[in-house]
Amino acid sequence: MCSGLDVKGQSETGTGKTAAFLLPIIDKLIKMDRAERVALEKPSPYAIIVEPTRELCLQVYEIGRKFANGRID
């Protein structure tokens, strides 16, 4: 269950850290319909993900697109 709390974690490569933070974000966006997302009073990001390098940012972006599988327009 997503309770909206912050979590800090550290673990080895390949253990699912990216999925752990991306899947709740994608789940929330899928549950919001397009009208809800458009009707927000001020345009704002749904989530901000900070990575130390551009390469990691691109990797997280690509993984997020695969997880969403075209379900977010």
Report on the structure:
By secondary structure, this protein is an all-alpha fold. The model has no long low-confidence stretch (mean pLDDT 83). It has a domain at 45-73. The chain has helices at residues 17-31, 34-38, 54-68. The protein is globular. 48% of the residues lie in helices and 0% in strands. α1 crosses α3.
Could you provide a short overview of the structure?
This protein has a domain at 45-73.
Helix content: 40-55%
Rounded average pLDDT: 83
Estimated radius of gyration: 14 Å
Instruction: Output the helix-strand order.
Output: HHH
% residues in beta strands:
under 5%
Distance, first to last CA? 24 Å
> Helical region count?
3
What keywords describe this structure?
73 residues; mainly alpha
How are the SSEs placed, and which strands pair?
Elements: H1 17-31, H2 34-38, H3 54-68
